[in-house]
Design goal:
Elements lengths: L3 H14 L2 H20 L10 H13 L9 H27 L11 H6 L3 H17 L1 H11 L5 H8 L3 H19 L1
Length: 183
């Protein structure tokens, strides 16, 4: 088994070389772990599985003509966003099939809101996260990594190359602001 620091260095090297075809085998297990953590909060009858989430997210990443990831952090941030978009699109389709439209807002804690798996709630959370991004991009990125990728504070700190204290502060703000927007 490869040492985690060697794997990080390998990802950084591949990104620097722009060798996108070599990237998936190196990051697949990590992407799948992110997807499994994220899907762990979904309802049991959810039709999208972790493997499908990784594959759909990868297709979006690989299909992006402007993909130029400058670092491992940048790549995994883009992967978290791609997973978010896949889940939101999936939720929108499920909502359209089920109810025919009309998102409803419900007051609930942000973490419960994200873990519910209800298409209306997921869409409302996505809309709130996009509004938060316009106000505070780093807080939105922390929220995405916590809510959509299922990362813990320490993992977010490593992914963003900031201190855990910074992540905790940004997460507290993001959680409060999202709760306010969802109320």
């Amino acid at each position: 088994m490869e040492d985690p620091s060697e794997a990080r260095d390998r990802v950084t090297r591949i990104l620097g070389e722009g060798a996108w075809n070599d990237l998936l085998p190196v990051v697949y297990d990590e992407l799948r772990a992110l997807a499994q953590r994220r899907m762990g909060g979904e309802r049991s009858e959810h039709t999208l599985q972790a493997t499908a989430l990784v594959h759909e997210a990868w297709l979006r990443l690989a299909g992006d003509d402007e993909m130029e990831w400058s670092s491992r952090k940048h790549f995994f941030g883009a992967a978290a966003r791609a997973m978010q978009r896949v889940l939101v699109d999936h939720a929108r389709r499920a909502k359209a099939d089920k109810r025919g439209g009309g998102a409803a807002r419900v007051t609930i804690s942000v973490m419960e809101f994200a873990g519910e798996g209800d298409p209306e709630r997921l869409i409302a959370l996505n809309d709130a996260t996009e509004r938060l991004e316009r106000e505070d991009a780093r807080a939105a990125e922390v929220a995405r990594l916590r809510l959509y990728a299922g990362l813990e504070v320490a993992d977010v700190a490593k992914a963003l190359s900031v201190s855990e204290r910074t992540v905790a502060r940004e997460w507290a703000y993001a959680r409060a602001r999202l709760a306010e927007m969802l109320a």
